[in-house]
Amino acid sequence: MMLLSPGPVYIPEEIMKAQTEEMITHRCPEFTELYTNLKDRMKAYLNAEDVHLLTSSGTLGLETLIMNIAKPDEKMVCFSNGVFGDKLGKTAKAYTNTEIHSLDAGKGWNLERAKEHIDNCGAQVFGMVYNETGYGVRNHAKEITQYAKKKGMFTILDCISAWPGTEMDMKEFGLDGFVTGSQKGPACPPGLAILGLSGEAVERIESRDKIPGFYNDLRAYKKRFEKDGQTPFTPAITIMRALRKSFDMMDERGGVPSAVQKHKELSEYVRKRIVELGFELIPEPGFESYTVTAFKGGDNAKEIKKRMKEEFGIVIVGCKGIYSENGLRISNMGYVTKEMLDKCFDALEKIKG
Ligand SMILES: Cc1ncc(COP(=O)(O)O)c(C=O)c1O
User: Fold this and answer.
1) CA–CA separation, 186 vs 164, rounded Å?
2) Ligand 1 within 6 A of 261 CB?
3) What's the whole-model pTM score?
């Protein structure tokens, strides 16, 4: 089966194989070496002060950022333009006072649209999704998080379907909290959330009296790492091994800047082919995702998806929210190649007739 889904994504064989090495415990020097290697590399990739790897999916990673950074008596303002933005808002509501601003499906956030909500919000914490996966919309996050930061807010960005396929530098973005998931751009199995923190976020977390959680109180992870380079709880060692292999492969191919360029170019190619096939793109121009393309598949969108899988062994997925009945999505996240995408378009062409 060829996965062109936006997570879990296609996993190259080398990454799958990296998981089959003999098991080690998380209380041995080999583990410390693996974990330190991953943390150091992520810190450099993101320009982050600190990085944590949580054994969890992306959502718990996001929740962890919110519960560690936002205090219960504070206010968090969240921007949404789809199901994942809505989930971010719901997560924030569980931990702090939350105000949510939403845009219609397909529309993207830019500074012009964001400014008035930031200027008048009186919030201490800001959150949004970089790449709204459900509709393939890339929000102009950098200009917004920079602005929110200048206004004195802690900034949290859900980069789960954005990184490393979309530009990201925590310091340049004025970002305090970053999250992605192993099953997305890193092209590993699901099970690890990768968190990035700014120096200010690290200080805030350290200085808090109480954090409303146990497993994901990030102070425990920091303390244990400082003690012996390990994790407080049993981590997903196999996925960490896969992640190291994925980072080796990314570095061999020119690192994060090349990954961004490759995703950008492949997504342009996907959009070109989709339009040539007669489909209509969902995102408004200028906000198209670099990692996932969403388009209107018509009344038989579900049938197309089914036939792609059954007749051609290619997995594409539907859209979310208001496009869940007639929308389709093709992902070029991770190590997807042009050759794989060409197979997908050949199949789509045959199905369209
Ligand atoms: C932007 C975004 N946020 C959050 C999530 C949720 O991640 P997970 O399913 O790993 O918890 C996803 C998953 O598709 C996503 O694309």
Assistant:
1) 7
2) no
3) 0.98
